[in-house]
Amino acid sequence: MYEMKIQVRYSEVDQSGVARLHQILEYFQDCGMFQSEELGLGVEEDQKNHRAWYLIAWNVKIIRHPKMSEHITVTTQAYKMRGFYGYRRYSILDEEGEAIVLAEAIWILMDTKKMLPMKVSKEIADIYVEKDVDTTVRINRKIDDNGEWKQQESIEVTKQYLDSNNHVNNTVYALWSEDILPENVNVSEVRIDYRKAAMFKETIQVFTQQQENIFKVKYIKPDGEVAALVEMILQKQEEK
Q1: Which sign, positive or negative, has the C-alpha torsion 53, 141, 145, 177?
Q2: Contact assessment for residue 61 and residue 121, using Cβ atoms and an 8 Å cutoff
Q3: What is the similarity comment for this entry (predicted)?
Q4: 205-220 in b/e burial notation, b at 16+ Cβ within 10 A?
Q5: Cβ distance 95 to 71 under 8 Å?
Q6: Closest CA to 170 of 25, 70, 65
Q7: pLDDT tens column, 115-137
Q8: Backbone angles phi, psi at 69, to 5 degrees
Q9: Residue 178: CA atoms inside 13 Å, Cβ hemisphere, count?
Q10: 203-211 vs 51-62, strand pairing mode
Q11: What is the pLDDT of residues 59-115, one digit of tens each?
Q12: Rounded CA gap, 100 and 88, in Å?
């Protein structure tokens, strides 16, 4: 288990003073990256060996959002490596050690020369995965995209959205989705199903669908392929 202790900054919160949805995912992303760096398997090492981890799915349960100035602990644990895939658990704990956000993710290891999945070596798996860890996979990856969709304003991929792999960073889909949420709602759960990387200068078509408290967003690349699907469980905000 790797831990990252931080204080929630003003720049990370919304109008109500709590960490935004995409910011929560950025906490998790940073925590995993810092662990990789500490283990000697960070970005520089991966680039040298022509490999990279691509995220293919998030499942996140938000009990409550971290608040501005709150001291929190972000944790991650790589609990399984199988074939091309790596599985991680994440959490955000409050100052009393109580979980306020829980998450699971699936990553795929890619050969960046061939742009094909590569098998996770035993050496890498042994470095990441602790002994006697719970290896039960609980994440649900695929999101159904059937039904009628409403088209929203398209998005142009600019440099600010790119990461070290030169495609749209995984947290950006949560950022884009936040902008088109219905008014006066909170997100209690979010699932993201990543299908194909969106690239610089591409125009991404955006479609939404809502059924009761389930709000979905579909992002389509210029070639017609799905870049990502986002599914959020909504709750009405409590009146102050």
Answers
A1: negative
A2: no
A3: Belongs to the acyl-ACP thioesterase family.
A4: bbbbbeeeeebbbbbb
A5: yes
A6: 25
A7: 999 999 999 999 999 989 999 99
A8: 75, -5
A9: 17
A10: unpaired
A11: 999 999 999 999 999 999 999 999 999 999 999 999 999 999 999 999 999 999 999
A12: 17
Residue 159 CA to residue 72 CA, distance in Å, equals 30
Half-sphere exposure of 165 (CA within 13 A, CB side): 22
> What DSSP assignment string belongs to 68-86?
TT-EEEEEEEEEEEETTEE
- Cβ-based burial of 23 (10 A; exposed 0-12, middle 13-18, buried ≥19): buried
CB atoms within 10 A of CB 88: 23
CA distance 126 to 87: 13
Closest CA to 233 of 193, 191, 180: 191
Please state the φ and ψ torsions of residue 223, each to the nearest 5 degrees: -85, 5
The one-letter code for the residue type at 38 is E
Structural domains of the chain, with CATH: 2-128 (3.10.129.10), 150-236 (3.10.129.10)
Name the residue among 212, 221, 216 with its Cα closest to residue 154. 221
CA distances from 224 to 13, 109, 146 (A): 34, 25, 15
Handedness of CA 159, 165, 167, 173 (dihedral sign): negative
| Bridge partners, 30 (sequence order) | none
Give the pTM.
Answer: 0.94
